[in-house]
Structure formats: C-alpha cells, structure tokens
Design a protein that fits this description.
heterodimer, B: 7 helices
C-alpha cells in the first residue's frame, strides 16, 4: 500500500470527487460594502 | 506562478478614490473568481470542516482587500493567498485543538481521516505539494520555511500518511470482513 509518492498523490486526488463549490465573491463584496 | 495578477498597486496616492475603488473592486472580483475554489478546497481538506473553510476563504480575500495597498508589483499572489489561508487555518486549529474525523465506510472519508491524524503543518505541506501540486519554492513561501526544510517536512508527512493509511486500511478491511460475515 502506498509504496510510491505517486500512489499518495492518486489517493489524495480522490478528495477532489464531490468537493463542494466555493463561491464567496458576493459575501466578500457585501462585507467590503458594509465596512465602508 | 501568477505574479501580481493586476491586483497590486491599483491605488496610488494621487488617484481619485472613486475610479480607483471601482478598478480595485473589479480586480478583487477577478482575483476571487480565479482563486476561491482552489483556496477553499485546500482549506476544506486542511480543516475537515467545509463551513469553517468557506468562512476562512472569505476572510482570506477580505485580508487581500485590506492589504491591497501593500501588495506591490512582483508580489506572487498565489503563495500570498495560500499563506494567508494557511495562517488563518492554523489559528483556527490552535483554538479547536481536535480535528474532526470522518467515518470509515469508503476510501474518500478514509483519506480524510488519515489526513486528520497528521500534524496541521504536515497536512498543509502534503496538501499543497501532492494535492494542489504547487511548486516547492511556492510551498516553502506559503508555510514560511526554506526549501531544504520543506523537503524534510514533506518526507515526514508522506511517511506519516503511509503509516496511518495502512493502519486505517487494515481496520476498514476488518470492518468490511466483519460486515460480510454477519450477512
């Protein structure tokens, strides 16, 4: 198991499956507006 | 490496605040569009908590907004952003102390569990090098160590990942055999 570094990379790449979409643009702009 | 990205040096002392603000907002929006997913995903895997990761991604870009006057042409924005995100994550982990672990049904949660058992500094290096696949000079900048020390830390992180993964995998296999026998 995980004999090579590539094996580790392949295992870690599984984390990409089902990653939630991150969209903070609106919130950041809103907070900047609130600050000003 | 993305240098500056058109984001730095947008506001000089002799510029009118109105247009500069508009230009700054546009550049910031472009920066967020480009990096929110990669920085957010990195934080999710570093912290194991998507909602906290989302909040800290927001904080990272707010810090970029507040610091934009100090970001000069030639600044490498990607390591700057990842560096800020990493510092925010470390601060959160110091307060929390215990990393939440996932269950052991399938491979992906297993990998998350294994990551959860690494030191935050090892986890950060492993994610940046082996998942984000950033160049080592950038990762060294992000975590604030030399490239020589980075090599040692990455080797330690991989060794620890292997060790914990094999241990967890054995437990999961036993669980699966037990489940299969009980059917």
């Amino acid at each position: 198991l995980l004999a090579s570094d590539d094996e580790i990379r392949r295992r870690l790449a599984l984390l990409r499956v089902g990653e939630p979409r991150i969209d903070v643009l609106g919130r950041v702009m809103q907070r900047i507006d609130d600050e000003t | 490496v993305v240098a500056c990205h058109g984001y730095c040096g947008l506001v000089s002392d002799d510029e009118q605040p109105g247009p500069a603000t508009t230009r700054h907002r546009a550049a910031l929006a472009e920066l967020i569009e480009e990096y929110q997913q990669s920085v957010g995903s990195y934080l999710i895997h570093l912290l194991g908590e998507p909602e906290v990761a989302r909040a800290l991604t927001e904080e990272t870009f707010l810090l970029a907004h507040r610091a934009h006057a100090e970001i000069r042409p030639g600044t490498y924005l990607r390591p700057w952003l990842y560096g800020m995100a990493t510092q925010l994550a470390y601060r959160h982990l110091r307060r929390r102390r215990v990393v939440r672990l996932s269950g052991c049904e399938i491979e992906r949660p297993l990998i998350q569990s294994v990551l959860g058992e690494l030191r935050p500094s090892d986890r950060a290096v492993l994610l940046l090098c082996d998942l984000e696949q950033l160049p080592s000079n950038e990762v060294a900048l992000i975590v604030g160590i030399s490239t020589e020390r980075l090599r040692g830390r990455l080797a330690r992180a991989r060794a620890r990942f292997r060790f914990v993964y094999v241990a967890h995998h054995t437990v999961v296999s036993s669980c699966q055999i037990g489940h299969w026998l009980s059917r």
